[in-house]
């Protein structure tokens, strides 16, 4: 409902860049979809049916690459994610990671990324009843309304660009929508170089979201400053609760809240802890510091990490939502957590791109010129 | 020489049936000369000093469809990234000049562009090195709009032999045949320019769809390994494919073939790659040319090739592929993309009918892409994407 309402006013957002009020501030009043008197798990299912999970990270492409045969439509025990379990867990959208293992991050990264893009497209085409490839917020909503799980392409690693904005544009043309700003000379421990900043501006112009999970503190700060559209952390929890390098300290969470970015909390034992309650603690913390419109979920399934108990695969989200209800989260905040925030960020990226394309030509900057 | 009447008639004919040109290296020239700074080479105005190609001259030449080559060098390791940059260059050109260049992916798009009076713009990859032995990457190029791939450039790749390299796999390897099969399934035309005659024959044996030669002439007329032998031309009617005659003097004129061999030797003696077109390289080239006057090909030289190819392959299997901006020298009368009417006028003088010429310029080349699409539709109903690897098939 909120989705449709927002679709009616895209030009307002374009104006919003000039300092006019942000149309998303004035969100519609939320109308509840569950009976407050029923059991938390039952309520969780009811809420998720209306506001499914947009999951920020799936390692499925690399996991499937090594399976000689698989069937996601009927169920596939070799992986943690398949269509029946996504339906059970109310997953409505999924970011399919194109990250490559260490050895492929160098010269071969561009070719290997093309292969991963091709693999995702092949998988989606082979499962037309369950999956649909989407590029924009509108298409993602459409997919959900058609009962399909929306598959978004990314995050890919920075190495996938081969240090070239032309390659960024070609990958965008192939559907890439999220790029992690780490693992390249222009996005390193030392922060973003001048070329790195130009990459972010070109990403804004195209509508490719910046993912900063795993990026260095300097890179994160430069990206906050340069990016015109909200940034993502596809796999980051609260460092105050668990000292993992990809988790965010409170200071950054505050900045993220001010910039209306999105911290997507991973369901991994390593980053969030071994139980559902640990994950909920992180969600509580991030919501408190960054705000309810800046927190999201990231299953991180099939990425080779251990998951908290009772959150072992893509079907388990209702347990987590039940725990949040138990803790007194409002339905409106849960709807933002699962679906609304990701939609807002995707839509914002689309609008920023449309506005930027009026003002900027495709960048012809070369890394050799900017970074010498 | 052709008379003014023939030239006027040629122009009238091209207005109805413009040229589909199989190969133009403008993207490579833009990469080389100005590193894709498209402001520095605004092709909406004449760029005679720098390029064979710009929109005013394409219009003057009666070009109605162009395969822009997204060629990258085969002797450098980064072929896949460089190819993506070349594709981006074409996309930028299409975004910049929408009134003149129409993005085209299908035969129907080509017809639509002709009706709109725009130049249908397609892409062709020049050399199997652009897919780095990966069928996934091949599909990526198709998704980005590439509609033919030349199986090799001047060097062999791991699965196909080039005309200008030592025989290696003896045509196509098993993986090479799988590449052809997958191209057929996608609807990407198999381009046999640049490949060894053994590869031409192997590809004709393997392919389920019509093939093209995007820029190749006749070996019987001029004995250069880049040209097409008669036994291969004879197979085109059975295959349905099209041989697009090229103008490059060093492939079409025997004296120029010999002269070029000597000139290449001279370039290598100066420590330069023989295809280099940098100012420094051109200086060395010009010095050689002063000492050894360059044999000049003419419109008539090219027409001789077409006459012969027509006799062997038939009128339904001919097209045009100028290779502009991909070659240092061009024939007299065909010095840039505005020259096509001179060739058509020459053919009119030689007695080619309007019907024949419409096939040569437009109809055959559009037909062949449409046929590849039809085959792809049929194949996609029976088989899925191939994930074969070169390790599996070639050991």
TrEMBL record, chain A:
Q: Could you tell me which Gene3D superfamilies the record lists for this protein?
A: Metal-dependent hydrolases
Please list where the region (Disordered) is annotated: 1-38
Q: Which residues form the signal peptide?
A: none
Query: According to the UniProt entry, which residue ranges have a biased composition of type Basic and acidic residues?
Result: 1-10
InterPro entries annotated for this entry? Metal_Hydrolase, Pept_M19
The record's section on Pfam families has: Peptidase_M19
Q: Which SUPFAM superfamilies match?
A: Metallo-dependent hydrolases
Note the superkingdom of the native organism: Bacteria
| Protein name per the record | Dipeptidase
Automatic annotation (TrEMBL), chain B:
Say which domain of life the source belongs to.
Bacteria
Q: Name one Pfam family in it.
A: Peptidase_M19
Q: Where are the transmembrane segments?
A: none
* Coiled coil (residue ranges): none
What name appears for this protein in its UniProt entry?
Answer: Dipeptidase
């Amino acid at each position: 409902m909120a989705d449709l309402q927002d679709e009616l006013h895209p030009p307002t957002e374009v104006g919003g860049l000039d300092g006019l009020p942000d149309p998303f501030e004035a969100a519609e009043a939320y109308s509840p979809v569950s009976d407050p008197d029923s059991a938390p798990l039952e309520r969780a299912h009811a809420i998720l049916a209306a506001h499914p999970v947009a999951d920020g990270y799936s390692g499925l492409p690399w996991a499937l690459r090594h399976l000689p045969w698989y069937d996601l439509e009927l169920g596939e025990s070799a992986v943690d994610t398949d269509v029946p379990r996504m339906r059970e867990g109310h997953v409505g959208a999924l970011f399919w990671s194109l990250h490559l293992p260490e050895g492929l991050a160098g010269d071969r990264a561009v070719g290997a990324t093309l292969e991963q893009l091709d693999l995702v497209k092949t998988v989606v085409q082979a499962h037309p009843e369950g999956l649909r490839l989407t590029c924009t917020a509108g298409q993602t909503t459409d997919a959900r309304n058609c009962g399909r799980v929306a598959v978004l392409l990314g995050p890919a690693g920075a190495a996938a660009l081969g240090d070239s904005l032309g390659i960024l544009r070609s990958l965008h043309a192939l559907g890439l929508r999220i790029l992690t700003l780490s693992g390249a000379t222009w996005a390193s421990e030392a922060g973003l170089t001048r070329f790195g900043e130009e990459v972010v501006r070109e990403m804004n112009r195209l509508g490719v979201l910046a993912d900063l999970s795993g990026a260095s503190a300097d890179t994160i700060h430069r990206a906050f400053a340069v990016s015109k559209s909200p940034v993502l952390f596809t796999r980051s929890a609260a460092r105050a609760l668990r000292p993992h390098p990809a988790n965010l300290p409170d200071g950054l969470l505050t900045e993220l809240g001010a910039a209306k970015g999105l911290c997507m909390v991973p369901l991994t034992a390593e980053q969030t802890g071994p139980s559902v309650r640990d994950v909920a603690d992180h969600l509580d913390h991030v919501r408190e510091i960054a705000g309810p419109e800046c927190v999201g979920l990231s299953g991180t399934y099939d990425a080779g990490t251990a998951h908290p108990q009772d959150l072992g695969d893509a079907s388990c989200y209702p347990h987590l939502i039940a725990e949040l209800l138990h803790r007194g989260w409002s339905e409106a905040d849960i709807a933002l957590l699962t679906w609304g925030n990701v939609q807002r960020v995707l839509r914002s990226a689309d609008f920023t791109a449309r506005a930027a394309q009026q003002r900027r030509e495709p960048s012809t900057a070369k890394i050799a010129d900017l970074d010498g | 020489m052709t008379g003014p009447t023939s030239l006027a008639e040629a122009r009238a004919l091209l207005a109805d049936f413009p040229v589909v040109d199989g190969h133009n290296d403008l993207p490579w020239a833009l990469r080389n000369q100005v590193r894709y700074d498209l402001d520095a080479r605004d092709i909406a105005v004449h760029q005679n000093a720098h390029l064979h190609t710009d929109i005013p001259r394409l219009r003057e030449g009666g070009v109605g469809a162009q395969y822009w080559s997204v060629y990258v060098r085969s002797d450098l390791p980064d072929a896949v990234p460089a190819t993506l940059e070349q594709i981006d260059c074409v996309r930028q050109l299409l975004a910049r000049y929408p009134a003149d260049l129409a993005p085209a992916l299908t035969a129907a798009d080509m017809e639509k562009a002709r009706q709109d009076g725009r130049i249908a713009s397609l892409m062709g990859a020049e050399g199997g090195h652009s897919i780095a032995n990966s069928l996934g990457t091949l599909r990526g190029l198709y998704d980005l709009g590439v509609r033919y791939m030349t199986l090799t450039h001047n060097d062999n790749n791991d699965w196909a032999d080039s005309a200008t390299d030592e025989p290696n796999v003896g045509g196509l390897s098993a993986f090479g045949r799988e590449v052809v099969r997958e191209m057929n399934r996608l609807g990407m035309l198999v381009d046999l320019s640049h490949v060894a005659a053994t590869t031409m024959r192997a590809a004709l044996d393997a392919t389920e769809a019509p093939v093209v030669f995007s820029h190749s002439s006749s070996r019987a007329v001029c004995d250069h390994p880049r040209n097409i032998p008669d036994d291969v031309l004879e197979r085109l009617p059975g295959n349905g494919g099209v041989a697009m005659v090229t103008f490059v003097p060093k492939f079409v004129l025997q004296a120029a073939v010999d002269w070029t061999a000597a000139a290449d030797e001279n370039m290598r003696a100066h420590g330069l790659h023989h295809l280099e077109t940098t100012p420094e390289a051109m200086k060395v080239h010009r010095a050689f040319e002063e000492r050894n006057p360059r044999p000049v090909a003419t419109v008539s030289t090219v027409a001789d090739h077409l006459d012969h190819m027509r006799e062997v392959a038939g009128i339904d299997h001919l097209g045009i592929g100028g290779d502009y901006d991909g070659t240092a020298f061009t024939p007299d009368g065909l010095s840039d993309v505005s020259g096509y009417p001179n060739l058509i006028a020459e053919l009119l003088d030689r007695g080619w009918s309007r019907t024949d010429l419409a096939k040569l310029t437009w109809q055959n080349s559009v037909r062949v892409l449409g046929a590849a699409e039809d085959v792809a539709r049929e194949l996609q109903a029976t088989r899925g994407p191939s994930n074969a690897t070169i390790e599996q098939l070639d050991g």
